[in-house]
Design a protein that fits this description.
This protein has 11 helices and 9 strands. The protein is of the alpha/beta class. Bound molecules: zinc ion. Pfam families: Polysacc_deac_1.
Length: 291
């Protein structure tokens, strides 16, 4: 539901929302494309830094700032680092689903994708987590994905890039089961700012954290002014490093200072959206591409 003035009905006392989210990809996003990368000691360490050093630093930061966040954890990360998953839960944060081995979903058929989802769910269940939220690896959704999520009882997804506020998404046709979509934005992902590893990823440029702070701060203020939803995606192997974490803490302070900004988990935003979003948006797939 959108109010007559075009704004989203946030809970009383709030005019916009912000959520700080962390994708704990660790080694999974490297190994899924190249299992042989396990032989690269330095690259594996670069990724393991996320759960080993970055996430504990970020948990301390979040505790200092007294906010709760959402952590998307691939099943393989949960198997390799069960203690850090428990530390995230102990900090009062949300654990959500992010594939098993961070599988690329582009072009994947429904039964294969269902297998990835279930394997991820089983791995998270073994560390005591039962997620209600999902984020597709690389934010790559297929047209059948919402149905797979609804079938498994997920309440929200945060992978699509087609709005500034949450909405109700039909899992298939009209009248089908629905879930809440909380959209994301590549401009609000630390990968684009900081990721660089020779022979694996990135442009070779690692941006100044003050530049990222400036850019994301402007996004937070603009979304606050419009009554929107600011969803930042960070990776502990990147933003868990000292200067980047320092800039992130400044951003959190600035965001908390915006009057009426609701800083919370995606699960809380989804629960509110469920209570105010009316009819579901049916995904419209282009059936015929002009020659
Ligand atoms: Zn990821």
């Amino acid at each position: 539901m959108i109010l007559p003035d075009g704004s989203f009905p946030w809970p009383d006392g709030y005019r916009a929302a912000a959520s700080f989210t962390f994708d704990v990809d660790a080694e999974s996003c490297v190994l899924v494309n190249d299992p042989g990368a396990s032989s690269r000691m330095s690259l594996m360490g670069h990724q393991a830094y996320g759960p080993r050093v970055g996430t504990p630093r970020l948990l301390r930061l979040l505790e200092r700032q007294d906010i709760r966040a959402t952590f998307f954890v691939p099943g393989y990360t949960a198997e390799c680092y069960p203690d850090i998953v428990r530390a995230i839960v102990d900090g009062g944060h949300e654990i959500a689903h992010h594939g098993y081995l961070h599988e690329p979903m582009q072009g994947v058929d429904e039964s294969t994708e269902a297998g990835y989802l279930d394997r991820g769910l089983e791995a998270l269940a073994r560390v005591g987590a039962s997620p209600v939220g999902y984020r597709a690896p690389w934010w790559e959704m297929n047209w059948h994905t919402p149905r797979l999520l609804a079938d498994r009882g997920f309440r929200y997804d945060s992978s699509l890039l087609d709005d500034d506020v949450p909405y109700r998404l039909a899992s298939s046709g009209p009248g089908s089961a629905s879930l809440i979509e909380i959209p994301v934005d590549w401009a609000l992902d630390d990968w684009e700012q900081y990721a660089f590893y020779p022979g694996w990823t990135g442009s070779g440029v690692i941006e100044d954290p003050q530049k990222a702070l400036r850019m994301w701060g402007l996004e937070a203020r603009a979304r606050h002014a419009e009554g929107g939803c600011f969803v930042l995606t960070n990776h502990p192997f990147l933003s868990g490093r000292p200067a980047k974490a320092h800039a992130l803490e400044q951003l959190i302070e600035q965001t908390k200072d915006l009057e009426g900004m609701w800083v919370t988990t995606l699960q809380e935003i989804a629960a509110h959206a469920e209570s105010v979003c009316g009819s579901a948006r049916v995904p419209e797939r282009i059936s015929e591409v002009p020659a």
